Amino acid sequence: MQAIYDFFTGPLNNFAWLYMFLPCVMIGGLLLTVRTGFVQFRHFGYAMKNTVGKMFKSREAGKGAVTPLQAVTTALAATVGTGNIVGTSQAIALGGYGAVFWLWVAALFGMVIKYSEVVLSITYRKRDEKGDWVGGPMYYISAIGPKWKWLAAVYAALAALACFGIGNMSQVNSITGSVTGAISAFFPVTDSGITVIHWVMGLILATLVAVILFGGIKRIGKVSEKLIPFMSVFYVLVCLIVIFTHLGNVGGAFAKIFVAAFNPRAMVGAASGIALKEAVVWGIRRSAFSNEAGLGSAAIAHAAADTPSAVHQGLYGIFEVFVDTIVICTMTALTIICSGVDISFGVKPGSELITAAVATIFGDKLAALFVAFALVLFAFSTVLGWALYGSRCIQYLFGTKAIRIYQAAFAVVIVIGCVSPIDAVWNIADTFNGLMAIPNFIGLFALSGVVARLTREHFSDPAAMLEDEIYS
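Structure (tokenized):
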């Protein structure tokens, strides 16, 4: 078992990330950027105006669908999670300050990648036997041609398994760690007491998730549209307080990021063992873990949106990556760097870095409470989003009758994730993330012409753009 684990999290992980995902993000992002006419840059203002500018407008969705707000908040529920807090902390600790720069670069390409995923998901979605819209990479991969249906099934199988890692175990593991830290800040806790806390948290979280999941996508959408805006604004505000209190360090923080992006050892020292490869790999890896661009997962949630066109919903993909990575991950990075807390480079951290940074202003106890509260909200919403993704993948493979079995298994794995070691959980999640991206990128490359055509037609048609304004 140890040999299998070592291969799975070693050579297989390196193959998936270093030799597949990293070049696919850079090459695929550049290809899609050019073929769509630099849509994420040329139409960025238009995308913001017709997404965040109007996303809180009250409206009802049609049968078997959810509103654009519910679709994007369900997708954001899965993206805005521990990747923004713990993932960004790990990028800095394992890749140096320069990893933040490469996280930004990956996000700029990630905007057009996720835009393309959403456009294709809407274009090739279908109604299931209950009348609900279903879609995602498994549907647009199969649209390449009859001979490609096996690859669609491979994606669905890998994504369904990945949900247990990225969308379940890593999230609840971070919740229990932060809650334990918060309790320990007020009361002395023994090792046996920590074990009890983890088991209790596992049972509580599994019960809550099961109740919401069995209510279907509309219940998930209703929970997400209330939870996501509140928790995102709350987290950013606290980070801004810390950053502005250390305002004199902001310039130095950006200097560290840009210098270390190309020469990590100039900032962290040769003894850290961090080279340029680590900065690039961990920046891109944690960007993907945070915003999911390239994984294709968010497209599953967007497929259920009641939207006038594929491009209209694709704009939300641009918005998602911007908010998730450019805004929230940057807030985490600047909070840690500006605060001046000690960073153990080369050691994979949990939530302790951001807790220590917030503690420089609010003290240890309030900081522990804040991080625990933020992680509980972020991670819980992520669990809901990924539970939906896994359910849709299982539905694609085995039909709707298998969904309940998968959801029950998903709830059981929550308990396992709460009591498992953090390194094992994150390593497993990383490997499955990289593997599921491979068939998704094949689909994106093969159908990039469809995305380019739909984008060109939409932005050259005044009637379509007027419909965006009216519908939004």
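The mean pLDDT is 83. Residues 352-398 form the longest helix (47 residues).
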